[in-house]
Amino acid sequence: MPAQEKKLLFNVNNSPHIRDGDTTPRIMCLVCLALAPALVWSLFVFGWHALVPIGFSVAACVATEWLIVRWRGLPRTIDDGSAVVTGLLLAAVCPPNLPWWAAVIGGVFAIGVGKQAFGGLGFNIWNPALLGRAFMQASMPDRMMSGEWPHLGFAGEWWKNLFHCLGGSFSGIAERIGTAPDAVSRASMTRAIDGGVDVMTGATILEKMHTPTAMAVVDELGNVTYHAPGALTPGWSDVLRGWFGIEGGSLGEVSAILLVIGGVYLLRKKVIPWDIPAFYLFTAAILGWVLPQPYKIGDAHAYTAWFHGPWLAHLGAGGLMLGAFFMATDMVTGPLTQKGRIIFAVGCGIMTMVIRLFGGYPEGVCYAILLMNICVPLIDTLTKPGVFGAGLKK
Amino acid sequence: MKHYFRGGIHPPENKNGTVDLPLTKADPPPFVAISFSQHIGKPATPLVKPGERVLRGQLIAEQSGYVSAAAHASISGAVKGVVQVRHPLGFLVDALKIENDGLDEWDPSVKIERDVDQLPPGEIRKIVQGAGIVGMGGATFPSHVKLSPPPGKKIDTLILNAAECEPYLTADDLLMREYPEEILMGAELFKRAVGARRAIVGIEDNKLRAVTALRDAAGRIGSNIGITVLPVQYPQGAEKQLIYALLRREVPSGGLPMDVGVLVHNVGSAFAGYQACAFGYPLTERIVTVTGPGIRNPANLWVRIGTMAGHLLDICGFDPETTKKLVVGGPMMGLSMRDLEWSVVKGTNGILALDDPAAYSHRACIRCGRCVESCPSGLLPCTLSNYGEFDKLAEAEEYNARDCIECGICSYVCPSKRPIVQWIRMEKAEINRKKQMEVK
Ligand code: SF4
Ligand code: SF4
């Protein structure tokens, strides 16, 4: 029948009548995919038990999101995938030997307080995963600080050989634990053994670099001179261990290389902007190279020379790559404009290095990003784009 | 000079369905319904009575007031009376129904030959006004008003808008390829009418055949009109953006192009202007692109003003199953029509049969910043959308909601599928309403 004789009704709605194919769930899904290599690697180096924090954290986040949104009487939001991302990111900044209940507490806090208390997705001020981690750090420090040392549970001989080449020896670790049994590693050692899991812990490269004690050298005449500790000039094997993730630390932070690969994937898919990771890492590298490194001589503080910092070790160590590619790039808690993002990223880089070098903690990424998160409204106001034609005389 | 403007996007062009097809004439319809409100401004006043026989080109409704435009019969036949048709904005307006007698007899006032070379400016304006010409890119602002800038506003540059930056549409492209000389001569006339120093055609680089045609034509008629090729970017065809891209002049917020000495006309209007000045043709037909997934045989058609939408859809093979939405105009700024009770008006550049992705439910803003980056007006659409959703008018005004040109980019790029423009339109309407209340 010709169209003009038939009564036809069409949908009426506002322009535009075409939309870009990208959706929020797709963005979240790609973030999960990009994070996958680093998380799988953590299973490889730490063993299957690393699934415990991952699984429980994701489950807790999704369940909390679902419950609160339901309770607030809002349309369901778990299908946007943001709760899964928060869960994975939270697990990524927790130690692999975290007990299940701790992961649940962290997840509930991250979503309940970090996100929903502010009004849900899009309204939170702080990165929920990092806020969850900060909460856990404050409330159960010993559970959070005990970076587990990799024991290559699933690795074959080939990997163990590589591991040896990179300077990690099992006996060496055992020695370190045996000779310098600080409270933390002993506690985690015992706990791990209690739990029936063969876990060893040791200081990560960041912990070693954090205000170490000077080496005293006594010459033949009995004069004592102090040298900057060797930890401040890490060798290639230390640096590479950090980059390749044959290193203790948080679950998802172990391999800088895999995080970079995931980050580049997100860049290529245009999920994250290039400016945040670029400026964050560049600032951190420059400061890591330029700034003098503090160390201790007895109770007194001393500093190495300017322009001698181990910047490459700083880049590969700890949560910097995870922070630069996955945490600081969280859109909700970052600035809206490119100018703003650059300010934000440079701020993150400065705060990270200042905390790492001069703060109380060996790692500064988490607090640096949380601190910069609060500055976002201010940054947004300062970098508001100029309206086309505004301020011109008619 | 690098030609660019701030923000903007490049959505899939989807012009392939019609860009290579020849321009064809649509069969004249059995009847037309010529709306009295085809332009911005007051509706035209009808001059003919039911039963009367009218000829093609005959004035059937005269302009009422300065900002208004005349309407002419687009076929010859008997006046049936006044009927109601749907305005593109959705409400019903009066239209004159004329039954086609199939003779297509021209009114004697038309088809004259006039030497346009010596036509004085005042005469050009009068002819354009008499021919009922309006902005044919969709804005439908009466052209004679634009050609008569108030004293004190000096126009130095005439810009012919040939950007056709909306996806799907190829009507202007075809017009330029087929009638380049007429368009350029029309531009010369408009230029003379406002006393501009120069004229420039702004055209996107996805229409290189039209560029060649225009350049050849300029050589043939000895015209020094510049043809400037711009990189494809939506919304290049928005006046302020086009002026910026071509001349780097920024039209002040709330101002008009003439505030920076520029007049912008669509190529279709220039063509119609030449037809009126040289031959006395009033505006009775135009090119319409009929395309989209729901159209089996997409086409660019010469269509008589007043042709019912259903007639065109039947010509082009319309599939009601795949069509969820019928859009008049381009997909970015066009309006969706609820039924087929409407006829082609002077500003109808396209009819699109689309499916309806906009029927997605929206989610919360994740502050991804894409809308901010692409907004050509330099606004914060995400913030404005939140103000719209939560009814915060004062804040919306402070964040310059009124500078939004409603290009639709923010809604297009939003991964959360937020109907941002819709909220901003609402805010603008509310702010204007408040302003008017204050004035009273
Ligand atoms: S519709 Fe308005 S707010 Fe949205 S991008 Fe266009 S000008 Fe900016
Ligand atoms: S594009 Fe959508 S989600 Fe992104 S900032 Fe704008 S409104 Fe928010």
Description of the structure:
The complex is a heterodimer of chains A (394) and B (440). Chain A is mostly helical and 394 residues long. Chain A has a domain at 24-144. Helices cover 54% and strands 5% of the residues of chain A. Chain A has helices at 24-46, 51-71, 82-92, 100-112, 128-139, 141-145, 157-165, 170-179, 183-194, 205-209, 236-244, 256-268, 275-290, 311-316, 320-327, 338-358, 365-382; strands at 148-149, 200-201, 215-218, 224-227, 294-297, 300-303. In chain A, β3 (215-218) and β4 form a beta hairpin. Mean pLDDT of chain A is 82; it is low at 169-201. Chain B is α/β, with parallel strands linked by helices and 440 residues long. Chain B is 30% helix and 19% strand. Chain B has helices at residues 16-19, 121-130, 143-146, 171-178, 180-194, 208-221, 239-247, 267-279, 309-316, 370-374, 381-389, 393-398, 409-413, 420-439, and strands spanning 24-25, 31-35, 45-46, 53-54, 59-62, 71-72, 77-86, 92-100, 157-162, 198-204, 226-230, 262-266, 285-291, 299-304, 325-328, 335-337, 350-354. In chain B, the strands form 4 sheets. In chain B, strands 1-14-13-17-15-16 form a 6-stranded mixed sheet, sandwiched between helices. Chain B has a 4-stranded antiparallel sheet with strand order 2-8-7-4, with no helix packed on it. In chain B, strands 11-10-9-12 form a 4-stranded parallel sheet, sandwiched between helices. In chain B, β7 (77-86) and β8 (92-100) form a beta hairpin. Chains A and B meet through α1 of A and α9, β15, β16, α13 and α14 of B. The structure holds iron/sulfur cluster (2 copies).
